[in-house]
Design brief:
- The protein has 215 residues and is mostly helical.
- It is 83% helix and 0% strand.
- The protein contains six helices and no strands.
- The protein has a single domain, classed as Phosphate transport system protein phou homolog 2, domain 2 (Methane Monooxygenase Hydroxylase, Chain G, domain 1, Up-down Bundle).
Length: 215
């Protein structure tokens, strides 16, 4: 029993480390592209390898626990939450890496007005990721009632910003290449928000034993 508790705790601690790193990556990626910070963008890209390492390590730990022990219903919920969450965290990290790659590409290009649209969505996404990771760490659902509104904001802003960028490209043909990257970054951010909501659903199940849809 002692070994089982130690393994569960270690698996959870590794997941928190992975979550904190993914959270740092999306925050740094948003700052990097908003400010054109190439050093920070390269740091985000380098961090992705460690996220992948955590992903494989935690998955192996979860499978070992399920194989060697007979977890209670509460512990099974924790293991299921962890297995789902590491998938969402890996994707958040991957989108962060993609934003960093875009930052490096755009460094040698002229910037255009729609770049300013990225920061508001980015700040919202960072808040969502922070909220969900704190909830996982504390085994709490506090603040989850705010996530649907934040996700709606992302969806609404994405539609509005896409229209504004397309209109801008139509009036400034030379901006097409750069603005296409802006659109990609906005889509990455929207997907990070979606993954944060999905992870929140799993945390809610872990904590309460009840399924919930957060979107």
């Amino acid at each position: 029993m002692k070994r089982f508790i130690e393994d569960i705790d270690e698996m959870t601690e590794k997941t928190v480390l992975m979550a904190d790193l993914a959270s740092k990556m999306i925050e740094n990626a948003v700052h990097a592209i908003s400010e054109g910070d190439l050093e920070l963008a390269n740091e985000v890209i380098e961090d992705f390898a460690l996220v992948n390492h955590y992903d494989s390590e935690v998955e192996d730990m979860a499978i070992r626990i399920m194989t060697l022990f007979q977890p209670t219903a509460v512990d099974v919920r924790t293991i299921v939450c962890v297995l789902k969450s590491i998938t969402y965290l890996e994707r958040i990290a991957k989108y962060s890496k993609n934003i960093a790659i875009a930052t490096i590409y755009l460094a040698e290009k002229p910037s255009f007005e729609p770049l300013e649209l990225i920061r508001p969505m980015g700040e919202c996404v960072v808040k969502m990721v922070h909220l969900v990771i704190r909830a996982f760490r504390e085994r709490s659902v506090e603040g989850f009632d705010k996530l649907s509104g934040m996700d709606d904001y992302l969806d609404r802003t994405m539609r509005d910003d896409l229209s504004r960028i397309i209109q801008f490209i139509d009036q400034n043909k030379d901006s097409a290449d750069v603005c296409t990257y802006y659109i990609s970054v906005l889509k990455y951010l929207e997907r990070v928000g979606d993954h944060a909501c999905k992870m929140a659903e799993k945390v809610n199940f872990m904590v309460t034993g009840m399924h919930a849809t957060i979107s």
